[in-house]
Amino acid sequence: MLIDTLDVLRCPYCGGRLALVESLFHHRTADELHDGILGCHCCIFPLVDGIPVLHVLPASTIARDQLQAGRPDLARRAMFGLEDDEQAEAFDAVASSNTATYRDTVEALGPNFEGGYFLYRFSDPTYIVAQAVARSVGAAVLGGKRRAIDICGGSGHVTRTLRDLSSAPPILADLYFAKVWLARRFTAPGCEPVCCDGNAPMPFARGAFGFAMCTDAFMYIWTKRQFVGEMERLVAADTPGAEPGAVLIGHTHNERTWSPSHGQPLSPEGYADLFETIEPRIFGEGHLFSDVVAGGPLDLTRRDDKETLDRSPALTIIASRHPGVFAAHALTQRTDAEGELRINPLYAVEPDGDRVRLKLAFPNEEYAEEYGACREYLPETLTLDRTAVESLATGRVSGDLIDLLRRKVIVDLPKRYY
Ligand SMILES: [Zn+2]
Fold first, then answer.
1. What spacing in Å lies between the alpha carbon of 61 and ligand 1's midpoint?
2. Rounded distance, CA 336 to CA 319, Å?
3. What is the pLDDT of residue 51?
4. How far is the CA of 67 from the centre of ligand 1 (A)?
5. How far is CA 57 from CA 53, 194, 287, in A?
6. DSSP readout, 285-309?
7. Residue range 261-273: average pLDDT?
8. Is the pLDDT of residue 114 over 70?
9. What is the mean pLDDT of residues 56-67?
10. Do 281 and 318 touch, CB atoms closer than 8 A?
11. Distance 12 CA to ligand 1 centre (A)
12. How many Å lie between the centroid of ligand 1 and the Cα of residue 17?
């Protein structure tokens, strides 16, 4: 963690600033903190492998005790939930390897971690909407001058797309240490991960951000009113003339419809009532999805009527007084890779002389049911020149391949993803 990041951290319980407790075990450089104990007015928290753990759940207490005993290795094992020695040693070996992939690391964490769909995350229908909305709103309010935070951002798939918009490194906050650790290492290198509880007050300073967002997680939050109040606080623009920020809650389920992994959703008006200081606008995800599939613009001037909202399984909520937010946003497609360009792993690839045949092959029925809308942009079959496929290694696309990148037949994945 960068020492500068302490400026935006606050204790979730007393609101006090956090500082490294110099008298206890720690490991730091001139501008980074690696391991140690952070203290406020009321308590102390562990900082494990560069990640502040700002909650007091059992693993955090064990990690804090291990750090005080001078054992950062055992503190990290506790935060990863690795109890059995054999599994812990196997994980440590993968974690210290320079060639291990995201997939290798996830597998070393055991079968209960994360499910198997991360491989397809960058092209799933929920993700392409979340990415387009986050980038459009983020670009409008951040302007390269302010910072973004992705709350309950898991292993950082959306955080990845905020990095070039956020002035200081974007903060990724999540309850699961393993996920934010994976994000910093693979999915969103350069982000600042923070481990905290979404059902507690958020451990950040008032007005520290221009953009606070949360996608695909809000329906699992029990303390929804507090969560929204906290998001409003994080983007508060208190000084006269300060530019307004924005709050985004993307892909939250709708109480009036059924969806897989339903959570505890509210109705559209129930969500609207959570906001006290900034009036929100609520969008059904369907129209936003159509905008993205069409290549833009993403039309945030639209007002979905009550019937549309009531019938939408997933909703996107945006609250902002910034004049640039509720506009039609062009969706630009970059032609160079942030990571590595690869054929979407949803395709079975069959070489055929100078050509390569691709056939859409979902991993299972469940995936097809939950994410089948990707058929609207991923063709069932496709034939490419072998030289075109080989050219992906250059990290640039031109000609027809630009459209295939936009349609996610080609995906820009983090380096060493699988
Ligand atoms: Zn405190």
1. 15
2. 32
3. 98
4. 19
5. 10, 15, 40
6. HHHHHHHHHTT--EETT----HHHH
7. 95
8. no
9. 97
10. yes
11. 7
12. 8
Going from the Cα of 349 to the center of ligand 1, the distance in angstroms, rounded, reads 54
Is 70 exceeded by the pLDDT of residue 115? no
Look up tokens 């979730």; give the residue. Answer: 12
pLDDT over threshold 90, residue 82: no
Distance from the alpha carbon of residue 173 to the mean position of ligand 1, in angstroms: 18
Take residue 324 and report the two structure tokens written for it.
Answer: 């640039």
Residue 54 Cα to ligand 1 middle (Å): 10
Tokens for 365? 């029925």
Q: How far is the CA of 63 from the centre of ligand 1 (A)?
A: 18
Give residue 18 CA to ligand 1 midpoint distance, Å: 8
Using CA atoms of 234, 38, 180, 237 in order, give the dihedral in degrees to the nearest 10: 10
> Where residue 83 falls among pLDDT bands split at 50, 70, 90?
confident
Which candidate, 258, 263, 309, places its Cα nearest to that of 288?
309
Report CA(38)–ligand 1 centroid distance (Å). 10
Which secondary-structure segment (H or E) carries 48?
strand 44-48
